Fold this sequence. Notes:
Layout: H1 32-39, E1 43-47, E2 50-53, H2 55-74, E3 78-79, E4 85-87, H3 88-94, H4 96-99, E5 105-108, E6 114-117, H5 122-130, E7 142-151, E8 166-176, H6 179-199, E9 205-208, E10 218-225, E11 231-235, E12 242-244, E13 263-277, H7 281-284, E14 287-289, E15 295-297, E16 299-306, H8 307-318, E17 335-338, H9 345-348, H10 351-365, E18 373-375, H11 383-393, E19 397-400, E20 412-416, E21 421-425, H12 427-434
Parallel strand pairs: 3-7, 17-18, 17-19
Antiparallel strand pairs: 1-2, 4-6, 5-6, 7-8, 8-16, 9-10, 10-13, 11-12, 11-13, 13-16, 14-15, 19-20, 20-21
Helix pairs in contact: 1-8, 2-6, 10-12
Amino acid sequence: MGSRRLLLSRLFQPRNLQAGGGALADGEPSCRSLRLMLQAGLIHPAGPGCFHYLPAAVRALEKLVKAVDEEMREVAGQKLSMPSLSPAELWHKSGRWERMGPELFRLWDRHRKSYCLGPTHEEVVTELVAAQSNLTHKQLPLRLYQVSRKFRDEPKPRFGLLRSREFYMKDMYTFDASEEAARSTYSEVCGAYGRLLDRLRLPFVKVQAATGNIGGSMSHEFQLPADIGEDRLVLCPEGHFAANVETLNGEQTSCPTCGGKLTQTRGIEVGHTFYLGTKYSSVSNAVFYSAENKPLLAEMGCYGLGITRILAASIEVLSTEDSIRWPSLIAPYQLCFIPPKRGSREEEEEGTALLERVYDDVAEALPHLAGDSVLDDRTHLTIGKRLKDANKLGYPFVVVAGKRVCEDPPVLEVWDQNSGEVLFLSREGVIELLSKVQVP
C-alpha cells in the first residue's frame, strides 16, 4: 500500500509560496486569484492571455467538469465534442464573421480556405442538427453540450483566467418544438446552473443581461459579486430585480417591482444563458417534423458556463489575501497528511509510522478519497512550516501528527480549513470525520 502513497515532494507543482506571485508579463494587471494561482503552482504563463494548467489545477478542473456533467444529466443533456476549427462560410451565413470583428481568431489552410477558432458554437451545432433530415417532434427537446477550449483574441487579456484568450467553457445548445417548450428548457437549464453554484457554495446573483454578439430575445448572466469584477450590476435589496447596468436605459435607481432603492455592485460573470428563438435555425434550416408531418424551425437556446473562469472566480471570492480557499467539492486534493519532523520526539515515538497507517486506513475505508490524499514527506521542515504551506494551498483538511501523537491512545490534530476549526481525534475519529467529505 505504501508505494501508492502520493508524496508531496513528487508532485509537479512549482510552488513560489514566499514570493509576491510569479512570472507575469510586464504591466499585466494582477488580482488575488492570479497571484495565488501563480504562487501555488496551479498555472504558469505561456504567452499573453494563455496559461499552462499544471496538474493540481487540472484535477480541480476535472472535478468541476464532473459536477457540471452531473447537473447536465439532470436536465437530459447529451455530451458531444465539436471541432475548434470552424469553416468561415458558416459564420458568413449567420453574419457573425463581420460582426465579431478582431475578437475572432482567423486562419487559412493550405488551400486558402478560411476558418476561425471557435469562441462559441451556435453556427456549428445548428448545421449539425440541420443535417439530420428526418428529425421529428418526438426527438425534441434536444439538449446538446460540450466542454472544450474556446478562443477569443482579447485586446487586453487581464486578471489571469478571468479574461484570457484561450479558456475552457461548457456550452449547451437546445432545440425545442415550440416557444413555450423552449422557455421551459430555459428555466430548467438556469435551475441547473443555480444548483451547481449552490453546490460550490458560491454566492451568485442571476441578472438580466444584454444579448450582444450571440443574439436572441432574452438573456441572463450568473454573476459572482466581487470588487475585481468587470461588470456593473444593480440589485434590489429585496431580491425582486437584478440587472447588468448595460441593459438599462439611463440611470435606473429604483426597483421596478417594489420601488426600493437599487444597490450597485461589481460582478464576475461565470455563466450566460440566451433564448435564441429561430435566429440560427432559420439560417441553417434546422427543421423538425411536427405531428402533422409539417417541417417547422426548431426554437433554440444556448447556455455557457466558464469552466476556467469559475475556477479563478471561486478562488477570487473565497480566498484570503495569502491563502487559497477552494469550494470543497473541487479542491485538487481533499487531504494533506503532515508527519513529524525528522529527529523529533514524535518521530522517535512512531508518530510517522502511525500517520502513514492512518493515511492507508483512510484510503482503504474511503476508496473515493484514495487519490485525494497527499503526504507531505518534507520531514526536514518543521510541522509549523508545512502547516503554513498547507494553509496557503487550501487543502480542506490537514491531518497532523503533533505532540499528542505520543499519548496512549494516540491523538491526531485535524485542521478543517474552511471552518478554521482544529479537532483532536483518534484514528477512528479521523475516518468518521472524513467519511462525510464529498467529491464529484
